[in-house]
Amino acid sequence: MNAKKSLLLFVIVVLLLAACGSTPAPQTIVQTVEVEKEVPVEVTSIVEVEKEVQVEVTSIVEVEKEVPAEDVVDITLAYGRFLRISFGAGPTPFDAIKEAVSAKYPNINVQLNLTPDNMNAWHDALAVWLSAEDPTVDIYGMDTPWVKEFGQAEWALPLNDLPNIGNIEAAGLETFSYEGQVLGIPFWGSLNGLFYRTDLLEEYGFEAPETFDDVVEIAETITADNPDMSGFLWPGAKEESLVMVWASMLYGFGGEYFDDGGLCAANSPEGIAAVEFMKRLIDDGISPAETSAWGAGDARTRFAEGNAVFLWHNADIVSWLDDPERSAIGGKWALIATPAQPGGRRSGITGGFSFAVNPYTDNLDEAMKVMEVIASEEVQKAFAIAWGPVQYYEGLYDDPAVLESNPNAGAISAILPSALNRPPSSNYAEVSTILQEEIHSAITGIKPVESALNEACTRIDAVEE
Questions:
Q1: Is 210 helix (H, G, I), strand (E, B) or coil?
Q2: What is the mean pLDDT of the chain?
Q3: Is the pLDDT of residue 66 over 80?
């Protein structure tokens, strides 16, 4: 408390009264005196004080877990260079496989062993490895025609117990099965069917054809008013596509590749009817005279130009048939399974590839885990976006990402259940060559149909002995 001096004025009045006599006049004396007095003073001041405050801090730290090098298992996958190429917006299929495996199984490293581009050289390289029981390759790409050969030689492990194999369409699994054992997981393939002009059929009051007789009737009706237009296009040149067309016709007329005894059945009554139908299409002008020299590219070009009613072709062209730079029939087409006569089977002949497991691998458990990932929706979708159809994963063509990359992919869903394999043979290359030669000689009139097919079966049975 501070002290402060105050000046107080005291007025002292002294009244002097006389004890007697008259009252005297009062006299006033004024005197100033300084007195020290403590006076309380309230002082307010602001003082800064440092105080520790507890603050709770939350942070996210990414920790990269390293797998010891000695625990990493390399799984070698043998396939061609296209596995490192994406034709769509997504990553390459190899990158998709590698990343999906790494995410689920960090101790597995997938690496690629490149195979030759030539399919015969590819086949022979695998045959050398597998016949020598070489474990270098853990997983390899298997072409459709090799299934019987590899199955007989036990060069591929059965995959029936793979956890998620039930998500693959049965038709796709059957393509890569031998004697009830699934030997490969399909990831890309070709599947053919019948394309037709929706605008023309609607204009003339026709529904989509169900039989080959329907195809002929519709084609003849429309081309009668449009003589520059072809009725039915298909590849008839002496090449592999001819075998696939023939197979569609064979099943459509109720035929089979082989009889119950394992002998060639191409010369059965149904087989003869199928090839006679193919020849009649050309002879009657429903298919152009040039058909016997056309490959698949020639046929699809004419159809895309708007010059045909029907086209037999692989389904992969759905990816560009609506592209105005490549097609004149955008929005005017549809795809169905190849028709069949009464008693026959509607079909789409398939080709393509699967991944199989080397029975001599030193890393069986890890190889099966990689196959599980390959069969997953994630990887199958990656193939669909990178390479386009066909994949056999159920519901894949309803997926928004797949449809965004290929809006017409859903058209394939309708023909997936119709998939059928080409003739199963451990000597498929030779069998295919025989069929190409004999069927081509029949449709061009060089040999009578029945004679050509009898010769085909004689030669095929000799090869299959």
A1: coil
A2: 87
A3: no
Name the residue ranges covered by the structural domains of the chain: 73-190+351-413, 192-349+427-464
Identical fold between 73-190+351-413 and 192-349+427-464: yes
When pLDDT is cut at 50, 70 and 90, the band that residue 234 belongs to is very high
> SS3 for 391-457, per residue?
CCECCHHHCHHHHHHCCCHHHHHHCHHHEECCCCCCCHHHHHHHHHHHHHHHHCCCCCHHHHHHHHH
CB 183 within 8 A of CB 355: no
pLDDT for position 120: 81
pLDDT range class, residue 54, cuts 50, 70, 90? low
% of the chain surpassing 90 pLDDT: 71
- Topology, domain 73-190+351-413: D-Maltodextrin-Binding Protein; domain 2 (3.40.190)
Torsion of CA 130, 135, 139, 141, to 10 degrees: -30
Single out the residue of 441, 411, 381, 362 nearest to residue 136, CA to CA: 362
Look up residue 319 and give its amino acid.
S
Q: Which residues pair with 191 in a beta bridge?
A: 350
Question: What confidence category does residue 176 fall into, taking pLDDT thresholds of 50, 70 and 90?
Answer: very high
Q: Rounded CA gap, 97 and 314, in Å? A: 26
Exposure of 192 in the CB half-sphere (CA atoms within 13 A): 25
- What is the rounded CA–CA span in Å between residue 429 and residue 124? 12
- Domain 192-349+427-464 sits in CATH at 3.40.190.10
Rounded Cα distance, 249 and 254, in Å: 9
Task: Please state the separation of Cα 116 from the chain's center in Å.
Answer: 23
